[in-house]
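Page 37, continued from 36.
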């Protein structure tokens, strides 16, 4: 029934634009995601408010969810597993996904007594995003939130790297992988953020060691992973774990590498031109979602990369981690 089944955190993004000095005053690590409790996030909002910094946009987010929106909006069939609270933010979040064509099931996703997770996205003038995340009830996502039957006829299972930071989901990930392999479903993992590689390497390795067919990451994440693994070359390091590796690198060409009969095959796909970078939030998520859509449709790897590059370029040219369905479709029509 589904081309792809994804699982990840459910977060409502609140975006702020601010100066480098204002970002430094928050104490957050530039370009990374930092986990926080409700009090710490409230304190951050207070710091921003005192400087007269107000939200620029609020929208549904979450790394894997952004990927699923791109996938579904391009014309694929996507299902998303997540955990939200029985609150207005949870209703908004699930409704936002469904409006983009992503299937969710409130019977599995909603924890009535929980609080929906939220993410403060701080965007500096160069478009770099720095995030502070309060996972809320999403931190307790577990097998109860997963309908394993959705994998029965799927092509891909998509796992978000941030889940490496959530011990509660470990058993569910094991079951998902086992079920996927039973039904011949391929498995993709997105590293999602440098913080995942820095602080949750063991959880990330647990995902990879089960066996995966595709890894998506950016150059910083790939380099951190390789160094921690004792390798100088990120491509070689990642191909130990996956049949396909896709490494983005901002405005530089992306590397698409796979194992061939005579050795490693690499494609270098140029980034699509961008007149002005407004906000990098969601760029990698959308790249992965669009690339995976291409794979699900049987497109050649360079074509998948070109489509993904065009979608990512559109994302960084606006505020927020998602485009409208019409915009995704326009990019598809122009590119394919």
């Amino acid at each position: 029934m589904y081309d792809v089944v994804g699982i990840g955190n459910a977060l409502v993004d609140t975006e702020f634009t601010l100066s480098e000095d204002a970002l430094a005053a928050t104490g957050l690590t530039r370009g990374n995601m930092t986990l926080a409790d409700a009090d710490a996030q409230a304190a951050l909002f207070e710091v921003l408010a005192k400087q007269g910094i107000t939200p620029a946009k609020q929208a549904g987010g979450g790394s894997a969810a952004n990927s699923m929106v791109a996938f579904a909006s391009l014309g694929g069939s996507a299902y998303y597993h997540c955990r939200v609270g029985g609150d207005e933010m949870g209703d908004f979040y699930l409704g936002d996904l469904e409006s983009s064509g992503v299937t969710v099931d409130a019977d599995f996703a909603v924890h009535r007594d929980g609080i929906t997770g939220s993410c403060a996205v701080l965007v500096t003038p160069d478009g770099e995003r720095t995030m502070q995340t309060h996972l809320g009830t999403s931190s307790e996502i577990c097998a109860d939130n997963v309908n394993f039957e959705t994998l029965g006829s799927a092509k891909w299972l998509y796992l978000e790297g941030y889940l490496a930071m959530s011990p509660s989901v470990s058993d569910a990930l094991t079951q998902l992988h086992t079920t996927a392999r039973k039904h011949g479903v391929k498995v993709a993992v997105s590293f999602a953020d440098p913080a995942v590689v820095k602080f949750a390497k063991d959880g990330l390795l647990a995902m990879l060691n089960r066996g995966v067919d595709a890894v998506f990451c950016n150059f910083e994440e790939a380099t951190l992973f390789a160094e921690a693994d004792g390798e100088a070359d990120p491509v070689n390091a990642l191909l130990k774990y996956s049949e396909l590796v896709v490494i983005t690198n901002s405005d530089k060409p992306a590397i698409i590498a796979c194992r061939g009969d005579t050795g490693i095959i690499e494609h270098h796909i140029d980034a699509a031109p961008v007149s002005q970078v407004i906000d990098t939030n969601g760029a990698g998520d959308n790249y992965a979602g669009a690339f995976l859509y291409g794979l699900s449709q049987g497109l050649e790897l360079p074509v998948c990369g070109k489509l993904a590059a065009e979608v990512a370029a559109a994302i960084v040219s606006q505020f927020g981690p998602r485009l409208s369905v019409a915009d995704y479709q326009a990019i598809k029509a122009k590119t394919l």
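Residues 39 and 226 are 35 Å apart (CA to CA). Flag for discussion at group meeting. The chain has one domain: 4-10+61-116+136-335.
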